[in-house]
Amino acid sequence: MSPQLDIGRMLREAIGRFPSAPGVDQRAVEELVRGIQRALIVGDVDVLLVKQLSDRIKKRALEEKLPPGISRKDHVVKIVYEEMTQLLGPQPPRFSTRGKKPYVIMLVGIQGSGKTTTAAKLAHYLAREGYKVGVVCADTYRPGAYEQLTQLLEPRGIPAYGEPGSKDAVKIARNGVDFLKRQNLDVVIVDTAGRHKEQEGLMDEMRRMEQALKPDEVMLVIDGTIGQTAKQHAEAFNKATKLGSIIVTKLDTSAKGGGALSAVAATGAQIKFIGVGEGIGDFEQFKPSGFIASLLGVPDIEAVVERVKLAEVEMSEEKVKAMLSGRFTLEDMVNQIKELRKMGPLQKILSKLSIPGIPELPAEELEKAEERIKKWTAIIQSMTQDEKTDPGILNDSRIRRIARGAGVSERDVKELIKNYQMTKRMMKNMKRAKWKMPKQLMRSM
Ligand SMILES: Nc1nc2c(ncn2[C@@H]2O[C@H](COP(=O)(O)OP(=O)(O)OP(=O)(O)O)[C@@H](O)[C@H]2O)c(=O)[nH]1
Ligand SMILES: [Mg+2]
Which of 426, 366, 420, 428 is nearest to 393 (CA)? Predict the structure, then answer.
């Protein structure tokens, strides 16, 4: 078993031992946190980071209320997943050539980091995304560099440019880009030599090549087996050029993968892709959440997280009770709606809540609902605290003032008040203990 899988196995075991039964169990939480710490330290994640992360997990696991209908284990899975995903930074946007043609990508990195393999993988990946791609071999140092590339690319019909006899890398790069440009390609990837072990030389080479090519994006290829040292590489690179994104390779083989990923993410530089094997297809867009999900090995983790989130919204029982007894403010109403909206598209929420009698809303209705929520939020912001808690005091002159402040019409304000009164009446009529959203309120979302 590869070491990388070991981290996952350790995490999975730690979570697996966690009890599903309700009730806060301090010992179980502590044991879980220790298990996670061990796994992350094996994964070479920075010790301080591990400490911060496990403290947060512990605090949340002990303090957060267990939503109704959710097992303690699922709840804790969600917490671990959220905290770990955060460690790896935000989701990078999908690759785009931003209208440039060809979009020139220059790959840099130290010797053996995986540049050439990555050039082929990236080309293959982008070709499958529908781009016309070519690769330039601007490595005049590694013997057989051009052959290495053509072997990988030719069977896939991806053009490669090289000048095996030449010693001028910058010139080859320029010729190559020009040559491939004439072939009407969308993306040109330039593979460079990683001959310098010490960083100054590497940075200098990178700068010269960059000046000559003016690439649209410089991608740094970092070997995932170097663990936390990855941070220094990323930082040095980040300083040398503003452009840039990062590809971390060899995450299939390294116990230090977690270290490399979290270290790079900590620099704020964006990890866009990861290499997860020697094959040309072993290459993925970097998805922090997906990476953690596979590490935790919880099948369909997104569904677990969503289920817990939904239950959390339904949970605020005091609020629900207050609402049912008619004690709820305008602000409560709009906040509840907004809370729900955080969960994703309205239609999806509606189907999850599975309230009988709610028809599918047409797209146009949904759009209107979206607009309405924006207006209502603005209206509420223009109200005084008294008005929010006791909308009964809203007379014509107050309504006029609020409408002006919110930049909406008086009719909009009246509509909100009407909705509120209707909802309040309905809430009073509902004798069920568990909160189910009334139809009318659903419509007004
Ligand atoms: N397991 C695994 N091996 C990889 C991965 N990426 C690259 N390698 C291997 O790493 C070794 C070096 O890869 P290259 O692509 O030649 O590295 P390079 O940066 O171009 O090397 P130089 O041109 O000498 O600087 C090769 O044996 C690759 O097969 C990966 O994601 N996983
Ligand atoms: Mg190479």
Answer: 420
Regarding whether 416 and 340 lie in a shared domain, the answer is: yes
pLDDT, tens digit, 9 for 90 and up, residues 340-370? 666 555 555 555 544 444 455 566 766 777 7
Clarify whether residues 359 and 210 are in a common domain. no
What are 88-140's pLDDT values in tens digits? 888 888 899 999 999 999 999 888 999 999 999 999 999 999 999 999 999 88
The pLDDT tens digits of the residues spanning 385-396 come to 889 888 889 999
Residue with the smallest CA separation from ligand 1 atom 10 is 114
User: Which residue's CA lies nearest to atom 13 of ligand 1?
Assistant: 114
Which atom belonging to ligand 1 lies closest to the Cα atom of 275? 31
CA of 151 to the centre of ligand 2 (A): 13
How far does residue 146's CA lie from ligand 1's centre (Å)?
A: 14
Ligand 1 probe mutation, 117, 146, 223, most atoms within 8 A of CB: 117
Question: pTM for this structure?
Answer: 0.69
Measured from CB, residues less than 6 Å from any atom of ligand 1 are: 109, 111-117, 139, 142, 194, 249-250, 252-253, 275-278, 282
Q: Number of structural domains, the chain? A: 3
Alpha helices in 268-329 (DSSP H): 288-296, 301-315, 317-324
Closest listed residue to residue 240, CA positions, set 196, 270, 200:
200
Range of the domain at 40: 3-91
Probe residue for ligand 1, chosen from 253, 278, 291 as the CB with the greatest number of ligand atoms within 8 Å? 278
Using DSSP bridges, classify how beta strands 271-275 and 283-285 pair: parallel, antiparallel or unpaired.
antiparallel
Residue 12 half-sphere exposure, CB side, CA atoms within 13 Å? 15
Angle among Cα 215, 269, 276 to the nearest 5 degrees reads: 90
Span from the CA of 115 to the centroid of ligand 1 (angstroms) = 7
